[in-house]
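Review form for a predicted model. The reviewer records the input and the model, then writes brief findings.
Reviewer: anonymous (R2)
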Amino acid sequence: MKFSIIIPVKDINNYILEFVPKLLKQSYKSFEIIILPNEKPKQINSVLQNEKIKIIGSGFTGPAQKRNLGAQKSDGEILVFIDDDAYPVEDKWLEKVLDNFQTKDIVAVGGPQFTPPESNFFQKLSGKLFESFMISGPVSFRHKSAHKKICYDLPSCNLFVKKKDFFKAGGFDTEFWPGEDTKLCLEIKKLRGKIIYSPNVKVYHHRRKNLKQYIKQIFNYSKHRGYFAKKYPETSFKLSYFVPSLFVIGLINGIFISFFSSILRTIYFSILGLYFLLMFIEGVRTKKISYIIHFILVGFMTHIVYGVGFILGLTKKELKSKYRK
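Model under review:
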């Protein structure tokens, strides 16, 4: 069984030069690496000069288009989708996924994405936020080791898909970015294929370097999820995705209502106090004193931004990727 590891990038960057040597050390040797920058560089860095590596210029396109092109140019039976800012935790990354594909109805496999040890303070903080159930809800397992299970949706930063089923599902929908991986998983589900989360298939995934980048990421994710909840309710119309929006609505309405009744005011501030107490407890669970206040403040901002973005997505008549032609 051969793997085709597909990496969409804008250009050859330091992440790729860090990532590729780790890939080439994989214990399972039947694989190829397909890197898709906008333009193929005239001079190839020595790190990338290997018979296992293909570099294909894609033109100015988005991640979905690049991944589809990589799939078309691939020779492997299993397509491996990973971001340029992610890399395997260990050299048995490919080897450990093999057993999952011995079962016929398993079409896709993904695993957790951890915060790299070399990350800065904010990146490590955002990693703690992602792995917290208080922040990420039922999808927090994507960022930590959890029990093996069947999933309805896994991200494309660490996703293995049988090539024949990838094309049956129509590949990545180029209308969307982000969200193209959610749409692909939905199409796989429609084919009655199983998507498995395996805790042994681990990668490190670099987080956003600062608050501004992080907030932008959360807003984009939530806006697309809100739109998907309306357009593709099969996997996106779930209570957990609505909770931050309900929190925002309750937060705003509670301020006005509390002016008219001391009882309602007491209830409102009691609920708000409980919320911050739970956030404090989650902050303490990070086992880092320096994280606690930051966890509470950034966690609160995460809920607000996600809630607003989700509502905006629900109201959108159409939501297109900026890369869509």
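Findings: The first helix runs from residue 14 to 24.
Further findings: The two ends are 35 Å apart (CA to CA).
Recommendation: see findings above.
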